[in-house]
Amino acid sequence: MHHAQEVMVAARRAEHAVVSEVAELEATGAAEMSGYKSTERLLQDLWRVDLGEARRLVRHARALCDQVSPSGSTVEPRLSTTAPVAAAGGLDRGHVRVIDEAMRYLEKVDGIDPAALGEAEQFLAEKAATLAPKGLARVAAQLISALDPDGVAPEEGPEPTDELRIVRRADGSLALRGRFTGRADIQLILAAFDALSGRAGAEDERDLEARYAATLLELCGLAMAPGGIGANVAPQDRANPAETTGPTERGDGDPKNLLPEQRHPDDMARRQRHEQQLRDPDPEPAGGVPPALVRPARSPGRALLTVTMPYTWLRDGIGHALVGPDERIGPAEARRLACDAGIVPMVLGTRSEPLDVERLSYKVPENIRRALVFRDQGCAFPGCTRRPERCDGHHIEHWIDDGETCLNNLCLLCPFHHRLVHHGEWQIEMIDGRP
């Protein structure tokens, strides 16, 4: 263990040596003499690092190393107390980042005593000797709260814009990256995710990131359900799919997405459907009612699902189903989606040609759902406290296996336990009229 500790100290000293070299390049004006606009751009080519890493190195060099003033004199490091600790190998780059950001914040506090700034830096540098960067960040937050209980006033200038990128990867997955700056908006987002991202009982071992992802799916499902804010948007008001799922940026670490013009086949299909809707809007219905005022017939309930697969596949649990033009899902996933949805069975022939599209033939009626809510009071899985409005109606004996849509063959399950029942080993039995 002693040798392992020595290796880490040596690695951190080497990191500080790199930072010191960056400071030397800045002091000698190497970037300008070499024709570069900044030291960051020079480091990109000189050391073959990403721009973000180059910016970090320059930022840490300016915080931990002596600087040369415009008059040519030497100025001590901005983090004068932290610098010798980092040079001795006592700090990781994460520690330096936390201390740097905390001190930048405190330096903006009106009327703060310069002596208090020095004491704050020394306090954080000492704490870094016993804490990981995340633990140090919590200590820094407590320190900031104590020294500046009212918070730093927002800087004047143009309002920062919120942003969210949705990127379709070559393997079919989505990558989301975004930033929100409004304090009230941030609290709204945090409140929603805090309220919806709790564990669904003791057996729910998902980490927070997985529960956040499930919460986003749940919010999208509510938005696109009948009566939701996204269910009846006119085609001309929708975003162009070419905008919403562009290629993954270079440098994201995914070798499948390095081609700048790469698009997933699903995105092309979505874009073509969108363009077709704009070219050929629905004709005006009889009676002269404007198309914008006509809403598609939707039954009350959770969702309308068109299953495109042979009936025998769905019944026997083999093969695959299609969601959209060519996105495949397994029969178990299709059966789970069908549990609490309106079903339009599309019967296919031997050459996969549609033979018949029947009327809406299956759903959990509103009166039965009310009885389910009264009986189950939420998710029926033991230990789960999900409320009824966040649950699906689940057929214990599936409707495709001749299970009836009746109270004695239904129960409420939250999305997590609904998936667990369909894809796991759990079985549900009705005892004295209760699941």
SSE string, helices as H and strands as E: HHHHEEHHHHEEHHHHEHEEHEEHEEH
Model regions low in confidence, pLDDT < 50 over at least 5 residues: 247-266, 282-303, 353-361
Q: What is the average per-residue confidence, as pLDDT, rounded to a whole number? A: 75
The largest sheet has its strands arranged as 5-8-9
Compute the separation of the termini in Å.
Answer: 55 Å
How much strand content do the residues show? 5-15%
Q: Please summarize the sheet with the most strands.
A: 3 strands, mixed
- Treating each run of at least 4 consecutive H or I residues as one helix, how many helices? 16
Helix content: 40-55%
How large is the radius of gyration?
A: 30 Å
Q: Structural class, from secondary structure content?
A: mainly alpha
Shape: elongated
| Domains (count) | 3
Got a strand count?
11
Walk me through this protein's architecture:
With 435 residues, this protein is mainly α. The protein folds into three domains: 2-147, no CATH class; 164-196 and 233-283, no CATH class; 297-435, no CATH class. The protein has helices at residues 2-27, 30-33, 39-47, 51-64, 82-87, 93-107, 114-127, 133-147, 183-196, 208-224, 241-244, 265-279, 311-316, 331-338, 366-376, 415-423, and strands at 67-68, 74-75, 163-168, 174-179, 304-308, 321-323, 327-329, 342-348, 354-357, 392-395, 410-413. The strands form five sheets. The protein has a three-stranded mixed sheet, covered by helices on one side. Strands 1-2 form a two-stranded antiparallel sheet. The chain has a two-stranded antiparallel ribbon with strand order 3-4. A hairpin with a 5-residue loop joins strand 8 and strand 9 (354-357). The protein is elongated, with a radius of gyration of 30 Å. The two termini are 55 Å apart.
